[in-house]
Amino acid sequence: MKQTKAFLILLCMVCVGIAFITIEKYKPTPLKFIIPKGWPKPAFDFKRNPLTQEGFELGKKLFYDERLSKDSTISCASCHQQFSAFATFDHPFSHGYNNSFTTRNAPALQNLAWQKEFMWDGGINHLEVQPITPIVAENEMAETLENVILKLKRDTAYLRMFKAAFGDATINTQRMNKALNQFMVMLVSSNSKYDRVMRGEDTFNLPQRLGYEIFKQKCASCHKEPFFTDFTYRNNGMPLDATINDIGRMRITGNKNDSLKFKVPSLRNVDITYPYGHDGRFFTLDNVFEHYRKNMQPIHTTDSLLKNKLYLSNFQIGQVTAFLFTLTDSGFLKNPKFAAPAYSKPTILHQH
Amino acid sequence: MRKNVTLYMLFSLLHVIASAQNNTVIKLVHKVGDKTLQLHTETYFNQFNEPFTVHKFKYYITGLQIEYENGKKKYTFEKPYHLVAEEDSTTKMITLNKPLKNITTISFLLGVDSLRNVSGAQTDDLDPMKGMFWTWNTGYIYAKLEGQSDSSNAAAHYFSYHVGGYKTNENAARKVVLKIDEKSQSPINEIAIEADILKWFVGANEIKISNAAVCHQPGVLAMMLADNYKNMFTIKAIK
Q1: Are residues A148 and A211 in the same domain?
Q2: In sequence order, what are the residues at sequence separation of 6 or more whose Cβ sits closer than 8 angstroms to the Cβ of residue A188?
Q3: Which domain holds residue A255?
Q4: Is ipTM > 0.90 here?
Q5: Do A128 and B219 touch (CB under 8 A)?
Q6: A268: distance to nearest CA of chain B, Å?
């Protein structure tokens, strides 16, 4: 009897001890999200998914992990490349599983914390469900969520990292996406020359300044500062490409008035995110300007601002281009924090 | 000491038996007309004499609530979202951890409430992994009926009805209220509820496989199907 009592007391102590250890262990390091001066409040719900260093690191590992695809060849980062502001550099479409191609131009991933809807047609209503789409799409990563979760569960490094990020080693779709989201919302581009000028830390040269004035007159009603998009869906007179038959926003709303409407893309880092347009049909900025001033084909759903096309002289195009180049944020493109995990660690010198 | 342990074990065993008897189980039985549903192998005929087989039959039961003690009390099922799948028999047995008697109504939402459609990635039965989720146009598929039919004009004569939609004018979630007229004083062990697949084709709307073999997005057809199948449930037996 005495022995049993002693045993029970010991058991209690062990239990309390374990509880303490578990509580002790889950202490993630909070990660601060800095809202650039003058920018609005983000749409992202930081209470639902509080940013931590551990969550961010896990998200980054997932973002760069090819095993999220069916044959372990494609990661998120394959099509969202840092040096191209997380768009696909120099490609109208991105390469998918088994020699397939996507049917839309991969958008840059930047300032996602301020976006409420995703994709060119806005079909996705929450950042937390966004990563599922490329993972399961047959012409992208072509994998099932079951397999992805299974692969992650078999990797002890992931078990450790999920535990560090969320308190226990449970791995499910929600946690994977929350971690990915933590990485994704940290991709803030707010330090281009334009931003520095706006903060009074730098000055435009003459063509840039003239270009900015023209931009504010001719472009800024849709490409609204500070995001250089107003996040609306508009038809800018690009005729339907019969090989793709992409009707845009109408696919989501079923509304004929939304035919050929696509989300206004941000122009941040525009210099290095070519080609342009939802299907990447414009290879250079010059192609884009020619479209607006000449080639556009307005139909009944074309934006009222563009009913008479958008006249720009050669001189104006030159100035606007000079301004657009000031939107390149080289600090963002080269930030080691966002690079593949192997490249972002400090170099360890091996000494004997 | 050993005696104590034996006694304790006996008591816990008794407790388990007693609580098992005090559960009320809702058993879902899937039918096609008067036949019990068999996946893949059986060919059935709908009201338009169109032959069809069934490969998949799944639906969400949300916020299951039971009014008992002649409507004086309400019991809410602990699991807010329950996915029923023909191929997984455990999903067709819903165990309510309470002995209920004098039940007057069983009600639930057939589908998923709009809030869950717009609140990010969910867990458990709502995990997008369950295959009841549209990725390209965010939203849950509330009910799925898939199979093959010679009357289908779709590729390989497949027909597949995926019903969902949460937006205004597209909402396909339907409230189901089943009334019971049972006045027994003893606690109920089992309530058998039948779901008849033939109800998908008729009711509010006539839907022929030959005219509409595919529904893969929210909209008019999805809502027509929902208006039909919301009447597929009947209470068959109370024991």
Answers
A1: no
A2: A34, A36, A110, A111, A113, A332
A3: 193-331
A4: no
A5: no
A6: 25
